[in-house]
Specification:
Rossmann fold, 3 domains, 4-stranded parallel sheet, DNA-binding, alpha/beta, homodimer, elongated, 6-stranded parallel sheet
Chain lengths: 338, 338
DNA sequence: TTGTAAGCGTTATCAA
DNA sequence: TTGATAACGCTTACAA
């Protein structure tokens, strides 16, 4: 029914081996021959069978996406970014949301990979910080690229967003609005992304000679509920900060909620900022000052790096390692009133 | 390196054909033989190669997910639901966000399917309403299941959420709060989901003998920006409704924003409701009364239906066609003050 | 530069 | 109930 390599070979009067060479862009084909074959391929609409190809060459033209984070918006952008590059190169994307807490997680990922002989995987934060997973993938010889906030792997294996720098911008934004007493709702400190963001923020405050006592830093779990509790701690006291920065938009939204409950006006009496720029940030009232990572582009880079690995050394594209998030200023931060 | 069917055959002293029968659960295998083979399979950790299997049997064990809607939350839930069933049955999920506006869209989907010889696809709204796509899939003999708000296909090919009924609940919720002058921000009327929701809403109002003049119904585009304009039309006038219902949460959020700009208190002076129960709905202030579809379960059902199609008639599971969304009451709707 | 022949790991045909 | 043997559509030694 559908056109095979044999049909193309017959029609163009060459061997299937030559057709194979053409579709694989082998240089060892005469110009005339190549053109004739390409002609026939176009005429017949031939498209090589992935399974057969994979069976013969042990490749699948399938890339995997491993993640745990339930931040749907982020994931959707990653998928679209990754697919934009996949489409050009004939790869497909197979998704694998897992639960990194599960003891079986790493084996589960390895099975996922071997089941479909994936040509490589992209790993999203926070799973991307998992050293054991990365080690297991290296051992299994599975190409991978991690998206992360810290430089924790070779340039070939990672796309880093410089969140430390982004949080410096956030700090200077607030200080320049006059804030010197700032509360910080951090993420879990066992995540590098959390420590990184906090470190960047504190480092920039230093520059302005602003101190942040430990009592102003409370650790959340990156979800709404924990954000509520942390914000409550920071705000439900006469001695409250004039600004709150949260490790992500979910917790910043929680801070807005607590402020609303306590009848504290944002931004007049309190500034609030988040991190992620998810859909919430632009829709919530007041809209949220936050930090946006170039997620789509990071995913593009990741796929390119993955595919680079299967190229000959001289054909490798030079690809950047680090991308820069940007500060998005909105309604929730304003001049300090005190 | 990895164990193949030949190894299993040799080790268990039978032909590979017999091993094949065992792994495919053919009844034509002696009990003793079957057990011996299963034993060896367990010992060796043999797992049949998908590509080889697919090449020989023209199946891929790959399901596709086709969508256009950029509602990320919804899509993430669908993916997780679908995968929960896929995992049990050894299928993987390949994603394909497209743009249904593109003239090439249907061909693009067909190529997507044939490229990887997908065993079936799930189509999400609003693309799921596309008749031409469904027809093309039938012609291409590609099994599909549509997730939709209206019963527009055979029970085997669709999972319907009864949005008409859900909107009846919404209407009665508002009427019982005392609202009789209600504004409705509809979705594009060329979508069945839009007409269906509006129809359900109006039908229930009839029951209460409440009239909705045409001027109270404005058509949005299901996005935030159009929601802003529609809400402005309805609210920025002395003669404004006491409640606004929007076709989705994005536009309801826009209504909240416009109300905030016009200094109209929600829910004291105005009730607002949406549809979707996306992350926005629970985080925004005031939190949004809305309707939640059992998206995860719908996706589970869709995969089961897809796989049912490749089963023998007598092994087919009976699967429901319709699911029921639920009304989620939150802060944004309250007693009518007039 | 091109072709021949042997796989890749399954399932399918047909006979025993 | 079983088993040889031939596909499936492609890539890859190895020759020529």
């Amino acid at each position: 029914m559908s056109v095979t390599i044999n049909d193309v070979a017959r029609l163009s009067g060459v061997s299937k081996r030559t057709v194979s060479r053409v579709i694989n862009c082998s240089p060892a084909v005469g110009e005339a021959t190549r053109e004739r074959v390409l002609e026939i391929i176009k005429e017949t609409g031939f498209s090589p069978d992935k399974q057969a190809r994979g069976l013969a060459s042990s490749r699948s033209y399938l890339l995997g996406l491993i993640y745990d984070n339930p931040d749907a918006l982020y994931i959707d952008q990653v998928q679209r970014g990754a697919l934009s590059v996949c489409a050009e190169l004939g790869y497909e994307l197979v998704v694998h949301p897992g639960s990194s807490k599960h003891e079986d997680f790493i084996d589960d990922c390895l099975r996922f990979i071997s089941r479909s002989k994936l040509d490589g995987v992209i790993i999203l934060p926070p799973v991307s910080e998992n050293k054991a997973l990365a080690a297991a993938l290296r051992e299994a010889q599975c190409p991978y690229v991690r998206l992360a906030s810290v430089d924790l792997d070779d340039a070939d294996n990672i796309v880093v967003s410089d969140e430390r720098a982004a949080m410096r911008d956030m700090a200077s934004h607030l200080v320049e609005l006059g804030h010197t007493d700032i509360g910080f709702i951090s993420g879990p400190q066992h995540f590098r992304s959390s420590t990184e963001r906090l470190a960047g923020f504190l480092a920039e405050l230093q520059v302005y000679n602003v101190q942040l006592p430990d009592s102003r830093i409370v650790e959340g779990k990156n979800n709404y509920e924990s954000g509520l509790m942390c914000a409550q701690t920071l705000l439900d006291t006469p001695n409250r900060p004039t600004a709150i920065v949260a490790n992500n938009d979910e917790m910043a939204a929680a801070a807005l909620r607590v402020a609303s409950n306590l009848n504290i006006k944002v931004p007049d009496e309190l500034s609030v900022a988040g991190f992620d720029d998810n859909i919430l940030a632009s829709r919530i009232i007041p809209s949220l000052t936050t930090i946006r990572r170039p997620v789509y582009n990071m995913a593009c880079l990741a796929v390119q790096k993955l595919i680079n690995k299967s190229r000959a050394t001289k054909e490798k594209l030079p690809l950047q390692k680090t991308v820069t998030p940007t500060l998005v200023k909105r309604e929730s931060t304003g001049q300090c009133s005190e």
